Amino acid sequence: MYCTYCVITLRDASGAHVSMSPTMPCNAPGSPYKVQITQPNSNNGDSEILTQLMTHVADQFNKAFKVEEMKSEISSRLTALERKLEIEGLKAVEIEKCKKDISEIKDQIWTAQKKYVDFNRMRLCICYKPMFCLYTLSQETIDYLKQPTFDIWHWEPNEMLSLLEHMFHELKLVKEFNINPITLKRWLLCVQENYRNNPFHNFRHCFCVTQMMYGMIHLCNLQKHVSIEEIGILIVASICHDLDHPGYNNTYQINARTELAIRYNDISPLENHHCAVAFQIASNPETNIFSNVDKESFKRIRAGITQLILATDMARHSEIIETFKSKLDGKFDFKNKENIDTLKMVLIKCCDISNEVRPMEVSEPWVDCLLEEYFNQSDREKSEGLPVAPFMDRDKVTKPSAQIGFIKFVLIPMFETVARLFPQIEEQMVIPLKGSRDRQRKSDMENKGNNSFKLLSPPVLVLCPLIVCVASK
């Protein structure tokens, strides 16, 4: 028998060990046994068990202290970074460095919580202290911002944030939604953080789509026809429409049976995810730009934003355009909610794929970015044994051939349909689109003459316009 401080044994007259149990013999004069007590040594079981137990307890304490130390260190680093951002007014390069530091801290926290990282996971939102100021914009810049010819490549991330902030003030959205200006800054920064560094679906694309929406609002004089609340829904939906896009389209999500596809039952998984991230950000008090609107207004705003983001799924392209055409056959009633909802869906669709409306020097880099993202996806699909769309295969697709079909069968018909309601779009957008189509045709003919590129097969080329649309999401 072992106890904490000694070893107790029973032995009979011959020195044999007596087992302590209910069956042990009685201690009698004819068969006596005596109790022997000895001090435990390092080889005894109790000592080993005690040592192991103490070691285990010490390890647990060490781990607990290390976790607390890590939390304390991370908290201190975040506080220091936020204070630095708030007080010193960092320049663009310094901002990017601080954002990288914060991103690394987030990764450390995430790694400590999970053993693996899924690229479809909903990213964490950090509420930043305001670290960009409202620029004093020249009148030339203010006027230029409203034009479809606006060159989005000349602006740094912090400048794009400031231009988006200007849109909210100029369109009177800050007043309409009673937005705290500091909250607006935090919201914009958090939105920017939740766009990934994809070749195409990134924060610059978000700004590009929003700037075109801003331009169309002014070009079509939408303030005359819809409420400021509807204008706000258009702008916010444009900003949030591709939040946390993973760089792989809906087709990949469904074929690969990703977490997003499973979560949303293969129904617009990306668009549903963009909506979810948008309202996750808005659920944080420090980044909720709708915190001061009443419940009924927020219900309308949330429904409107969700409707528009879901409309950017190009699988619904024909359905939405045909519905809009049917409403144009009679006199378009701007007081009819269903008409306005359809118009808003068409407008965000136009802005989402409007790059070819812009001058060639602005639109051409976007095609290269989109193809890079396509090729990344097709390479992954090949490695995972999934179906590969021909228009995304780097060994089959060419830029001119794909663009001709896309412009001819998708962009021009859609913008011409909107021009039936707003004739000013014909000159500002439809004519530039036709010029882009002709330029791509000329480039395609020159390439054919040189015979120095890979041709799409006729069946693929015929299908290309619709496939390219779907793939753009």
UniProtKB/TrEMBL annotation:
InterPro entries listed in its UniProt record: HD/PDEase_dom, PDEase, PDEase_catalytic_dom, PDEase_catalytic_dom_sf, PDEase_CS
Cofactor binding description: Binds 2 divalent metal cations per subunit. Site 1 may preferentially bind zinc ions, while site 2 has a preference for magnesium and/or manganese ions.
Gene3D superfamilies reported for this sequence: 3'5'-cyclic nucleotide phosphodiesterase, catalytic domain
SMART domains named in the record: HDc (SM00471)
Domain of life, source organism: Eukaryota
Chain ranges of the PDEase domain: 83-447
Protein name: Phosphodiesterase
Taxonomic path: Eukaryota, Metazoa, Spiralia, Lophotrochozoa, Mollusca
